[in-house]
Amino acid sequence: MTEQTENATRLARPLIRLAKLVGVATSYVGMSHDYHEIEDDVLVAVLKALGIDASNDEAINQSITSIKSERETRVVAPAVLHIVGKESKVEVHGGMFDVPEASITLENGKQFTGKISHEGGEKIAHEINGSFFFMSYLVLPADLPEGYHTLKVTVGSETETATVISAPEKIELLDDMKNGSLWGWMSQLYSIRSKGSWGVGDFEDLKTMLVEAKKKTGSDFMLINPMHAAEPVPPLTPSPYLPISRRFINFSYIRPESMPEYLTLSHEDRAEVDALHEQVESLNDNARLIDRDAMWRVKKHALWVIYKAGRTKARQAEFDRYLAECGDEIESYATWCLCYDKWGAPSDDADNWVRKYNRDSEEVAQLREKFPDTLEFYRWLEWVATDQLHAAQQAARKAGMKIGIVADMAVGVHPAGSDVWWNPERFAKGATVGAPPDMFNQQGQDWSQPPLNPIALEQTGFKVYRDMVHDMFANAGAVRIDHILGLFRLWWIPEGKPATDGTYVHYDSDVMLGILALEASRAGGVVVGEDLGVVPAYVSKSLSAHGILGCAVEWFEQFDGEFRAPHDWRPYALASVNTHDMPPAAGYLEYGHVKLREQLGLLSGPVEEFQASATAEHNAMLNMLVEEGYLDKATLRDELANENEIVDALYRGLKGSPCKLMAASIVDAVGEKRTQNQPGTSSEYSNWRVPLAGPDLKVVHTDEVFDLPRVQSLAAIMNGEK
Questions:
Q1: What is the distance between the alpha carbons of residues 542 and 40, in angstroms, rounded to a whole number?
Q2: What does the alpha-carbon distance between residue 431 and residue 422 come to, in Å, rounded to a whole number?
Q3: Residues 167 and 146: beta-carbon distance below 8 Å
Q4: C-alpha pair distances (Å), 468 with each of 383, 416, 516
Q5: Record: fold of 228-422
Q6: Is the pTM of this model over 0.85?
Q7: Which of 28, 117, 217, 472 could make an SS bond with 139 (beta carbons 3.0 to 4.6 A apart)?
């Protein structure tokens, strides 16, 4: 393809200059190397979502002037990155003869005693409103320790502070990964139930699976669906990737009987809880559909009974410590839950509470005063959920897992959720996040989530992101960042536009990757970035430089119709055969993705054309497996009869890669064929509600998963035994 770029005339336009000034892309190259220039109306709408007026020529020029003025007159930027062990330069602005005075307060409250030096910068003066400003540098020394510190800078009569994010240069591999690899399982927690479940997989099921996986298969981690917070009352949003808050945990996964308080209940209260459990016990054997709503109606009642029974002094003290650590943030989610509970579900209606009121509304304060017990109940639920998730991770490590839980961080949050309602200033208004057309969805995707405002992120020292990452590592040995490209650039779709009519907005990836490195290093953890789709070369290079693993999906490791041999895959990656957005291995081999997309009307062309492409891909994969010695060519005479052997070959290929982490899918191991999620759909398909079952549609329970012969066979491959 002939390279296409914006011409000089376009680049000179004020609208284009303004967009580029604030990190809004004015063109991009798609997955098929197709070049696109962004229409003016899209740019204007995206800039408005950022709080920047581009409605006319005068407004555009004023915005350019205002932004440049702010940047050139501020003493220091609100957030700066320092790499531990290296000197770093921080821009400061002031008069020609002004010498900055600087000090650093460390995150522990102590003063940094190291030397902060000053270095000259550009000699060109910037005239702003009749005053002249010059740029110079503060040099932060190499021995500044890691952490989140406060830099205070005085230039002349002006004093400003900045958050210094002092982070390691990269995340070091675990010792077991330096000269080898670790393998584990990936699963959808909600889908795997035991007799003790309440119709949906829960934290106790997770604990059991982690321990059993290590004991019976030798695995060292389990990647699970996001555990982010959900609604307090039904209906619950099925997708774990559309949470109410990313800061808190989904308390519908609580196992009531695992709480210490359950054991001390009165005879009457325990009998009530047990009777409630019996009402939903049959849901555990439903192989067709996960019914979260039925589960939660009953389980929430049981939890209320336990809550009202009270706590010991020791447990109350633990609860109080938790609330103190959360601070004001817990009030955002608990208050939102209370409003939802008493006033009903959020809606687009102008009179709905989520639009009519905010955190400072008198009506909200009155509701909190009227129902203090219910408010405390929601705080308590969050504490219990955190406690049980933490216990699962502790059990995994005690069992010998090198990593344990791999937590999944969603891209964003529900537009009417607690994060957005309580702190709207953190988000862009008038835009949602999605993806341009690609191999996953030819019509593009709109995930309906409002994006974090990169300007607000910088102004607040990236605190919301810091806290989120920290909390995830508190209960996990690794974190998977869904769509990690979003730390570099996100596809913003203006309100009222289709997913195709968006553009990329850039973020400060260096700072956000630095935060990941800092939190991972403190936790001794691992970071995996889901980097599938359209990924610029600079993104892959940056992730590798920071010690962040990417993702290698066997079915995606191809170029121009030929699959790459696994031994040629990049080492810094989590390798898997497939993803949760695809049918399991057996279903994919039977063209389940073609049938489902045709059924749901998701194809932009004739089904015959898509089927031909899928068949060519299928044959190319099998040929690669045969050529690399993972599959006996004789099995291809009857693929359906030898489907298990072909699935085994896919995993032998996975094991033949140099990837530092490898994940085997539980759905593949049990022979499940149904897709968990079909991108581009919501209610059209039972996304995120498919229980774990075998090829005969018989439910596979938590306590039997790792004893199944097929699971043991796949584990033997991952352990290099067959």
A1: 31
A2: 18
A3: yes
A4: 16, 19, 10
A5: TIM Barrel (3.20.20)
A6: yes
A7: 117
CA distance readout (Å), 495 to 178, 235, 355, 418, 706: 46, 25, 17, 20, 47
Nearest to 534 by CA among 440, 663, 410: 440
Task: DSSP letter for 692, please.
Answer: P
- Encoded tokens for 303: 């939890």
Give residue-wise pLDDT tens across range 388-419.
999 999 999 999 999 999 999 999 999 999 99
For residue 268, give every residue at least 6 positions away whose Cβ sits within 8 Å of its Cβ, in sequence order, or none: none
Q: Of all residues in the chain, what percent carry a pLDDT higher than 70?
A: 98
DSSP-assigned letter for residue 415: T
Could you tell me the residue ranges of all domains in the chain?
8-70, 74-167, 228-422
From the candidate CATH numbers 2.60.40.420, 1.10.10.10, 2.60.40.10, 3.90.550.10, the one assigned to the domain spanning 74-167: 2.60.40.10
Nearby residues of 376 by Cβ (< 8 Å), 6 or more positions away? none
CA angle centred on 270, ends 267 and 272, rounded to 5° = 110
- Chain segment 170-197, per-residue pLDDT in tens: 999 999 999 999 999 999 999 999 999 9
Give residue 84's pLDDT band: very low, low, confident or very high (50, 70, 90): very high
The amino acid sitting at 408 is D
Looking at residue 440, its pLDDT comes to: 58
Q: DSSP secondary structure string, 551-604? A: EEEGGG-EETTEEPPGGGS-SSEEEES--TTS--HHHHHTTHHHHHHHHHT--S
